[in-house]
Specification:
alpha/beta; Dihydrodipicolinate Reductase, domain 2; 2 domains; 6-stranded parallel sheet; 10 helices; about 35% helix
Length: about 375
């Protein structure tokens, strides 16, 4: 890395997202060699020492810590990447900001709206570069959708609808809590599908279609009690298994959102569709390299939905990869976000969007959704 500025990464957490982020950093020097700033896998922190050391060795981190506080205290760490459970985000991020470290945080920003605001205030006061890993923005087809919308081709927007469907919790014997199932524990996660799945849909929606003004929501918890993995006791389940809400956007369009972990046959079906006065767009994660587009201004005898295969070098990010017609995958969205973060340092704009400020706006919508469902009333964001 001669003549390059290095960013020494301290990764906290070695789960799925820890692997995704580590993989992203390893690709930056080869796929984005022109970036002035380049990452170095300096250290990883994990409470499980055996698995943490194995993770560090597998991914090429130079060292290991079993306490994230020690990682933040180190002088040889420039950026803290938070891949811990949601309830730890605030404490880690605030400590990192006070230490002057750059921060890359997994979504959602926090498990609690008040802590999310404290995190935003901390990074704002410290002036540190930051981003939150809402990675779907960096799918080339989704970025292309953004470019098309910003060009005005859709005209006035009338509708935005999205859903995120899974089926992995349809089992009353599945425990809550612990290392593997913390997303089912309200104390660790803060919420269920609202913070885990709908947060992605909301971030993408506001990026593509602008701010959300108000919401009306319904949530349901289908399995009311589960055994807690850490205590061995059966106790109430506090997270939402399913959520549906509709909303008004500031641009006058209507929104309809659904997320559930109880849609048998769906592992990760994330889709959105946007209807405008001239044209419509739709996207499906299961066919992530395609964007569907309909333009009413086409000649009537040729009018119809077209399927755009987003693999050409002129399309977002694709000039970095293979030849036209060959696809990329889910993991590439993290590589793109990491590259944009380092590009942001180069341009002096403090990292990349979505920033903590952007993620706090998504957090406010999630908070309003849960409050609406609880009170059975419309809630302003």
């Amino acid at each position: 890395m001669n003549n390059k500025k290095i960013v020494r990464i301290g990764l906290i957490g070695r789960g799925l997202m820890g692997r995704m982020h580590a993989n992203a950093y390893t690709h930056i020097p080869t796929i984005f060699p022109d970036l002035e700033y380049q990452p170095v896998l300096q250290a990883v922190a994990s409470r499980n020492e055996e698995k943490g050391r194995e993770f560090a060795e597998t991914w090429g981190f130079k060292s290991f810590e079993n306490d994230w506080r020690k990682l933040i205290e180190r002088d040889d760490i420039d950026a803290i990447d938070i891949c811990a459970p949601n309830n730890l985000h605030a404490e880690i991020a605030i400590a990192a900001a006070k230490s002057g470290k750059m921060i890359l945080c997994e979504k959602p920003l926090s498990h609690d709206i008040n802590q999310a605001k404290e995190m935003l205030d901390a990074v704002t006061e410290a002036g540190v570069a930051n981003t939150v890993w809402y990675n779907y923005r960096r799918m080339p087809a989704v970025t292309l959708a953004k470019n098309i919308i910003d060009s005005g081709k859709l005209g006035k927007i009338f509708h935005y609808r999205a859903n995120f469907l899974q089926d992995w919790t349809i089992n009353p014997d599945l425990p809550q809590g612990g290392e593997a199932a913390w997303r089912l524990d309200v104390d660790a996660a803060g919420s269920g599908v609202t913070g885990d799945l709908l947060a992605h849909c909301i971030d993408t929606a506001m990026w593509l279609n602008g701010a959300i003004e108000d919401v009306s929501a319904v949530t349901e918890t289908f399995v009311k009690e589960r055994m807690h993995q850490e205590t061995g006791k059966v106790q109430p389940v506090g997270i939402d298994d399913a959520c549906i809400f509709h909303c008004h956007f500031e641009n006058g369009s209507l929104g309809l959102f659904e997320a559930t972990r109880y849609a048998r046959g769906h592992k990760a079906l994330y889709t959105f569709e946007i209807n405008g006065e001239h044209a419509s767009i739709r996207w499906d994660l299961h066919d992530m390299n395609r964007l569907e587009y309909f333009d009413h201004r086409d000649e009537s005898h040729l009018r119809g939905w077209r399927s755009i295969h987003v693999t050409d070098g002129e399309q977002p990010y694709m000039d970095r990869w293979w030849i036209p017609g060959t696809s990329i995958g889910y993991e590439h969205s993290f590589i793109h976000q990491a590259a944009d973060f380092f590009k942001g340092l180069e341009e002096g704009n403090k990292g990349c969007a979505p920033s903590f400020e952007d993620a706090y706006k998504t957090e406010r919508v999630c908070h309003a959704v849960l409050k609406s469902a609880k009170n059975r009333s419309w809630q302003q964001v």
